[in-house]
Amino acid sequence: MADLNNDLRLAVDTGSVVLGTQETEKAISGNKAKIVVITSKGKEKATDDITHLCNVAGIKMLMFKGSSMDLGTVCGKPYSVNSLAVLAPGNSKILEEKY
């Protein structure tokens, strides 16, 4: 069974990932994002904006079941992360797995 937390950490450590709402929106708009992850408990407007951008661009989006602090911890960061965009998956299978 696929583990989103492990694949996220692998993508951060071995691939290319941008963190934060503004950087995620830029990656989607620039057609660089392969997949987007947002927290289920994030800011509603930011979540709606990113969801809309992903739908328009045809980019797969995953909902992280936890807070922005939880997502930051999974990414190995000492701060909250509301959203992230994976530009290159590295050694993770985040683009191939079903969560």
Helix content: 40-55%
Shape: globular
Q: Main beta sheet, described?
A: 4 strands, mixed
The fourth-level CATH homologous superfamily is: Ribosomal protein L30/S12
Characterise this structure:
The chain is of the alpha+beta class. Helices cover 41% and strands 20% of the residues. The longest helix has 14 residues, at 44-57. It starts with a helix and ends in an 11-residue tail after the last strand. The relative contact order is 0.31. The mean pLDDT is 93.
Question: Short summary of the structure?
Answer:
This protein is an alpha+beta fold and 99 residues long. The protein has helices at 4-14, 21-29, 44-57, 68-74; strands at residues 16-19, 35-39, 60-64, 83-88.
Topology summary:
Blueprint (H helix, E strand, L loop, with lengths): L3 H11 L1 E4 L1 H9 L5 E5 L4 H14 L2 E5 L3 H7 L8 E6 L11
Parallel strand pairs: 2-3
Antiparallel strand pairs: 1-4, 2-4
Helix pairs in contact: 2-3
